[in-house]
Amino acid sequence: MATNGHSTLQKLVSNDVSTLENPQSSTISFHSINYTIGTQKSSYSLPFMKMQHKQILYDINGVFKSGMNAILGPTGSGKSSLLDILADRKDRNGLEGEVLLDGQPQMSEYKYCVGYVVQDNILSETLTVRENIRFSANLRLSKTISRKTKATIVEHVIEQLGLEGCADSRVGTESVRGISGGERKRTSIGMELVLSPSVLFLDEPTTGLDSSTAHAVLESLHRLSRRGHTIIFSIHQPRYSIFKLFDTIFLVAAGRCVYHGPANSVLPYFSSIGYECEQHDNPADFLLDVTHADTSKNKVNNHELNKKNEENAHRLHDLYIASNVYTLMQQEIKAARNRIVTTATSAVNYHQPSTKSRFSEILYVAQRTLRNVYRNPALITMQTFVPTFLAVLIGLIYLKVDNSESVGVPNRMGAIFFIVVNQVMSNLSAIELFIKERALFIHENASGYYHVSTYFIAKLICDLIPLRIIPSIIFSTIVYFMIGFQSSVAKFFIFYLAIFLTTTCGASICFLSSASVKVFGVANLLAAMSFVLMMIFGGFLVVVSSVGKYLSWIKWVSLFRYAINIITINEFEGLEICPRNNPNNCTMSGTYVINNDAHIQYNNDWDLWYNFVALTYENWFNKTQSGNVGAALFIIGYIGFYGFVIISFFVQQLKETQKQRADLPAYVLKTLWDIPNKNKLYEELADVERLKRIFHSYFSDHESHTETTNEELQTIVDKRAYACASKYREKLRRLHLSHVDYYTDTIPSLSRRTNDVQEQASQSMTPTQTISTKTSIDSSKQDDYDTHFFSVSVV
């Protein structure tokens, strides 16, 4: 039995072509969904002083089976919020209710068995259609699948969606024409289909498409639904030819369900409550008109309009729950909730995380990033031309400076300042790069393509080589010898390292700025203001020691100060300064200029360590020893970008932890507070708590039917409780691998109970036997831990 189950699982995880053609049919059911957000209240008081909450969804219940399931409603009705909740893309703060996939709650594996296509087509624009779909397959399919099989899956998806004609065409950018809008949408769908998801969510799939293209996209989805996929999508105002493709309609108005049932029954239903659709009217337009309050006779403001729409939605909702359609749907919803799905056939179990190595993730993401770079000729040209032009310009301005005190010293220091300013400011173009990729990164990370650190490392590698190292070599080689800096191989390489690290640091600050805000203009302003502030305290425009203590601390975060210090020490150490009219009588050393004119403290190695935070002593740098600061500036250079990664990672972890902790009782949280590395434990425990809650809800259903229960209902409830207990035991088995003792101390004998259940059931349960259930409450901890424990015994 176990072998057969394992082979089934192995086949489904492998996502072979037969699975793509006949995917597992799944059912999504949702129960008592309430969703509230906090919004700023309009008042004359300070913005942060008053808050009000707005409820988006009110007690939403429903079920979606395989087929075309449309969520309709006017703008602002809550249809997109409902879709995001079903796809587990909403923060759990303010969210109540539960969503079940094949009778099981949303757990950590959920995102691997559903696909989600966002409203805007988020694709890598320089890649072809085939390359985009292949990228998804490489990162999201199991590493046990061969490259040949993955290629077969990709080609099959392309064929399914009718993309053969544009498979090798690039998606296209704003300046370079690519594929059409409909082909973009189908490519986005294809990137999800490589997983053969049991459920596919789409947010407004017809947005931005003309009528014929929109119909073609929906026809593709209709074909997929006939192969067994559960297609769930929000849509605003479809044409009649699209409306005819729908199997189920969920009509929402002002956050309330006003109809949920078969698409071919929607017009008869509204006719029965007094709303007749004219013979030649589009049913979709008719439904939107019904959900809007009639304001044609009187002019009303927005507040009155919203109030009338609320009243209209209330009335339609009341009519709906009093109808036979509602009664029939409630029976289907209950049946979906009581659905018994075995471990071998559950969609939750045959789509698992990719388990791909971190190195493979970095390789694929870096490969795509490099493709984006070399397929953007304008970027490559500018990254080569601009450094060359500026290097020649600076070289001509300071051509062959002498060693005189009156001209040579000021020109050298001016050239150094000009070089540093140029290298930093030229990185402002890097701001746009991440802002363009922000939506792509967020979507792919949420969909499980890769980790945050993977994106960072790949970006780091691909940013360093083509955009930082090569331009720095070009710039340094030209400007160093044209200006006439000291002729020393060691000094040249120190100069090059300083230029490279300065450029890198400037780029990292730009990345940090672009990661902090979404608007290009704001990000550009933040980076520019940071550079100006750092430049003032760089030591060239003002003597930093003369600035008051309340501002002098800024020098410690000034990129310009570190860069100018490195190049100044490198150039002036060992240089002899002579009068312009007597070049043979050199009376001043470069060290004197460093300490007095440049106001840089440089007497020994300790001063370098003090100024640059960290030193890595290297003997081959001869007397200057300024190369020792290379490692320090490198750390400073990337701390900004890496800071973004750290912040993003912890914000993401915080959100996930909060989402998981929201499902845990206070007593458990208190017990687990001091456990190290508890995020994974939170995830497992949250799954356990959801299973317990589902069990309790089934038991409550059973109790509520004690007077009118029949044998069939008894069997369904009891078997569902057993299935829940089995899943529960599996989660507890995983917990035994880490920190399980803390949890079993909190819940006495819980693990023993579930083990007993499994052993007894495996020994004595037959298909005709009934499992009786009972709940027990740990009364000693009931105040802190208001959760029902349970045990299952076989009669």
Automatic annotation (TrEMBL):
Bias type Polar residues, positions:
751-767
Task: Please give the InterPro entries that the UniProt record associates with this protein.
Answer: AAA+_ATPase, ABC2_TM, ABC_transporter-like_ATP-bd, ABCG_dom, ABCG_transporters, P-loop_NTPase
Q: Does the keyword ATP-binding apply?
A: yes
Q: Give the molecular function GO annotations.
A: ABC-type transporter activity; ATP binding; ATP hydrolysis activity; efflux transmembrane transporter activity; organic anion transmembrane transporter activity
Entry keyword set: ATP-binding, Membrane, Nucleotide-binding, Transmembrane, Transmembrane helix, Transport
**Topology of the protein relative to the lipid bilayer:** Multi-pass membrane protein
Q: PROSITE patterns, per this entry?
A: ABC_TRANSPORTER_2
Pfam families (alphabetical): ABC2_membrane (PF01061), ABC2_membrane_7 (PF19055), ABC_tran (PF00005)
User: By its UniProt entry, which Gene3D superfamilies does this protein fall under?
Assistant: P-loop containing nucleotide triphosphate hydrolases
Domain ABC transporter, first and last residues per copy: 28-279
UniProt biased composition (Low complexity): 768-779
Compartments (UniProt record)? Membrane
Q: Where is this region: Disordered?
A: 751-782
Question: Per the UniProt record, which residue ranges are transmembrane?
Answer: 378-401, 413-435, 456-483, 489-512, 519-543, 629-651
What family name appears in the similarity comment?
Belongs to the ABC transporter superfamily. ABCG family. Eye pigment precursor importer (TC 3.A.1.204) subfamily.
Q: What is this protein called?
A: ABC transporter domain-containing protein
**Species name for this entry?**
Rotaria magnacalcarata
Q: What is the lineage of its organism?
A: Eukaryota, Metazoa, Spiralia, Gnathifera, Rotifera
